[in-house]
Write a structure and sequence with these properties.
This protein has three helices and five strands. By secondary structure, the protein is α+β, with helices and mostly antiparallel strands.
Length: 122
C-alpha cells in the first residue's frame, strides 16, 4: 500500500452501538435499540457504558468511539442521517446487517485525509 496523496475531505466524528441481526431477530434488535436510546435520552446510562454492554462490533472495546471518519466511507443511509441530527444527539439507523445506534460527537470538519492505493508489481 502506498500513500499517493493527502486530500481535503469532510470528516464526521461519531460513536456507535451496533446490534447485529445475524444474532438477534430484527424485532428484538429494534426493541434493544429503542431501549438503548431511551436510557441515553433519560440519562439513565451513558452512551459509553451501553456501548460496552450492547455493541456487537469492535467499538465495544473503545466505548463506542469510532473517531473521525471520512465522508463517503460510511453507509450512505448513515451519512444522510448524520446530516439531519445535531451534535450530541443519539439516533438509530438500519443497515442490511443490523441496527446502528449512533451519536454525532462533533460537527463535521474539513481536514486533510489520505488517499491510499495498492500497487501490485509482478
Amino acid at each position: 500500500v502506498q500513500i499517493l496523496a493527502k486530500l481535503p475531505n469532510t470528516f464526521n466524528h461519531i460513536s456507535q452501538i451496533f446490534i447485529d441481526t445475524s444474532v438477534f431477530t430484527r424485532r428484538i434488535a429494534d426493541s434493544l435499540a429503542d431501549e438503548v436510546l431511551r436510557k441515553i435520552q433519560t440519562g439513565q446510562e451513558s452512551f459509553e457504558d451501553l456501548a460496552v454492554t450492547w455493541s456487537m462490533g469492535g467499538e465495544s472495546l473503545t466505548r463506542g468511539e469510532l473517531g473521525w471518519i471520512a465522508q463517503g466511507s460510511l453507509i450512505p443511509k448513515i451519512e444522510q442521517e448524520l446530516r439531519k441530527h445535531p451534535k450530541g444527539q443519539a439516533f438509530k439507523v438500519w443497515s442490511p446487517t443490523g441496527v446502528h445506534v449512533l451519536r454525532k460527537n462533533e460537527d463535521p470538519k474539513e481536514m486533510a485525509g489520505f488517499a491510499l492505493m495498492m500497487r501490485v508489481i509482478l
